Task: inverse folding
């Protein structure tokens, strides 16, 4: 396990690293998740040439620290992740980022352009959304006030999302989970979709085949490759790792 201090109070981001050639590949998880269980099979897949791979957990999630004085906004996550990558000696990386992690990765690429050479978004959040009514993809966390969520609302979320998602969500700090969900609902400024369109690096958006994202034609017009993955749902890398790895091979540097 590797780590880097990314917060004035000494909090550390941690990651699992697989050895290989540069440039590095950085895998970022979604809301209430952790990178190693979601990406390990794909990062080590025989279809992919061996590159240095960092399966990294954002502050508040998985094996990383949970500072209570951290805002957990998309921008704060992006800056903390940038600090970790700088300390890990990463530059010009391929960034593979799922769901909420995709929103963080877009903000990272816009704010710290030298860190990201190409970006693969995996059914990522591109737009802000209203916290209510409850949305299945984000579990309705942002519909609660912070204290309401921490004092018991999380139990309703646990029952709603089911045991598979909760198996990783329960590793997250409750305040980190809530603040991140609220920031995701609010979106970035400019919005993630606008930031993505303005990036000049190679970009791709992977989605479950048959469920094309809103604004797909506008994404294509902005130079984003929009690729459907068969036999998959939101967790594409878990649902069809073979097709996911095969697609990454076509998108990432050899």
Result:
């Amino acid at each position: 396990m590797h780590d880097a201090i990314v917060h004035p109070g000494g909090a550390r981001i941690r990651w699992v690293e697989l050895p290989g050639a540069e440039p590095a590949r950085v895998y970022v998880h979604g809301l209430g998740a952790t990178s190693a269980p979601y990406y390990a099979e794909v990062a080590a897949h025989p279809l992919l040439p061996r590159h240095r791979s960092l399966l990294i957990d954002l502050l508040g999630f998985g094996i990383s620290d949970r500072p209570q004085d951290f805002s957990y906004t998309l921008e704060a996550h992006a800056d903390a992740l940038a600090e970790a990558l700088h300390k890990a000696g990463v530059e010009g990386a391929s960034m593979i980022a799922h769901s909420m992690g995709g929103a963080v990765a877009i903000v990272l690429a816009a704010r710290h352009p030298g860190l990201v050479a190409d970006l693969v978004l995996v059914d990522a959040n591109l737009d802000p959304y209203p916290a209510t009514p409850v949305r299945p993809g984000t579990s309705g966390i942002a519909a609660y006030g912070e204290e309401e969520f921490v004092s018991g609302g999380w139990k309703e979320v646990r029952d709603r999302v089911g045991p598979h998602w909760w198996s990783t969500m329960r590793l997250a700090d409750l305040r980190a989970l809530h603040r991140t969900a609220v920031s995701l609902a609010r979106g970035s400024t400019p919005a993630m979709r606008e930031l993505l369109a303005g990036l000049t690096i190679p970009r791709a958006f992977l989605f479950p085949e048959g469920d094309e994202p809103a604004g797909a034609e506008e994404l294509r017009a902005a130079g984003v490759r929009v690729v459907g993955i068969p036999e998959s749902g939101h967790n594409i890398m878990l649902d069809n790792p073979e097709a996911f790895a095969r697609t990454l091979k076509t998108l990432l540097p050899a």
Observations:
- The first helix runs from residue 35 to 43.
